[in-house]
């Protein structure tokens, strides 16, 4: 099991370093990515994780494939079979290249801030440029939940937690959670 560090840990407050592009395919970085996926896996409500959340100060975040499964569900209104499950998406050295002017308050939680929830003002649409786990550059546009995730995760890489920006914070017991 790979533990997720909690908000009292100072590692969550430091700025993460860029990954040298040549090192992306190295065993060291591949292990960090594998550990991040492992850390996320047991959390049913977890939709994404940033490297500082496992104590690694590198600019990497992973979005769970279940986010894209959810989108497919919404689009097709059909159950997603195991075969159709989406892969986790890896973002290395991500940069927000576009942000919508429109911002809305969205409910947010965090795997490192159990069990607080609050509303954070987020751009409804963003576009992120990053490297994938093979060292290939890509650009991904996002709206709604994925856009919110991009902003939340990049905040983590800059040592920012959602509780710094949230309003209407409340503590909910695990069984009442929506996602984090
Ligand atoms: Zn978080």
Overall pLDDT metric: 92
CATH level 3 topology: Peptide Deformylase
CATH class identity: Alpha Beta
Sketch the major β-sheet: 5 strands, antiparallel
The radius of gyration computed from the alpha-carbon positions, rounded to a whole number of angstroms, is: 16 Å
Along the chain, the helix and strand elements come as HEEHEEEEEHE
Number of strands: 8
Q: Biggest sheet, strands in spatial order?
A: 1-2-3-6-7
CATH homologous superfamily annotation: Peptide deformylase
How large is the count of helical segments?
3
CATH architecture: Alpha-Beta Complex
Structural write-up:
This protein is α+β, with helices and mostly antiparallel strands and 180 residues long. The strands form 2 sheets. Strands 1-2-3-6-7 form a 5-stranded antiparallel β-sheet, sandwiched between helices. A 3-stranded antiparallel β-sheet has the order 4-5-8. The longest helix has 14 residues. The two termini are 19 Å apart. 33% of the residues are buried. It binds zinc ion. Zinc ion binds next to helix 3.
How is the secondary structure organized here?
Blueprint: H1 27-40, E1 48-50, E2 60-63, H2 65-76, E3 89-99, E4 103-108, E5 116-123, E6 125-131, E7 137-143, H3 144-157, E8 167-171
Antiparallel strand pairs: 1-2, 2-3, 3-6, 4-5, 5-8, 6-7
This protein binds zinc ion.
Brief digest:
With 180 residues, this protein is of the alpha+beta class. The protein has helices at 27-40, 65-76, 144-157; strands spanning 48-50, 60-63, 89-99, 103-108, 116-123, 125-131, 137-143, 167-171. The protein has one domain (10-176): Alpha-Beta Complex (Peptide Deformylase).
């Amino acid at each position: 099991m790979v533990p997720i560090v909690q908000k009292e840990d100072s590692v969550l407050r430091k700025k993460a370093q860029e990954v040298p592009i040549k090192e992306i395919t190295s065993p060291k970085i591949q292990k960090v990515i594998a550990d991040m996926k492992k850390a996320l896996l047991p959390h049913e409500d977890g939709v994404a994780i940033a490297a500082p959340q496992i104590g690694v100060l590198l600019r990497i975040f992973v979005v769970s494939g279940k986010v894209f499964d959810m989108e497919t569900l919404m689009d097709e209104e059909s159950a997603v079979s195991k075969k159709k499950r989406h892969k986790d998406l890896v973002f290395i050295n991500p940069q927000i290249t576009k942000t919508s002017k429109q911002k809305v308050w969205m409910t947010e939680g965090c795997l490192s801030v159990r069990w607080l929830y609050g509303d954070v003002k987020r751009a409804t649409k963003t576009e992120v440029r990053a490297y994938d786990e093979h060292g290939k550059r890509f650009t991904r546009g996002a709206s709604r939940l994925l856009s919110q995730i991009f902003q939340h995760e990049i905040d983590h890489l800059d040592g920012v937690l959602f509780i710094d920006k949230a309003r209407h914070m409340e503590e909910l017991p695990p069984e009442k959670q929506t996602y984090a």
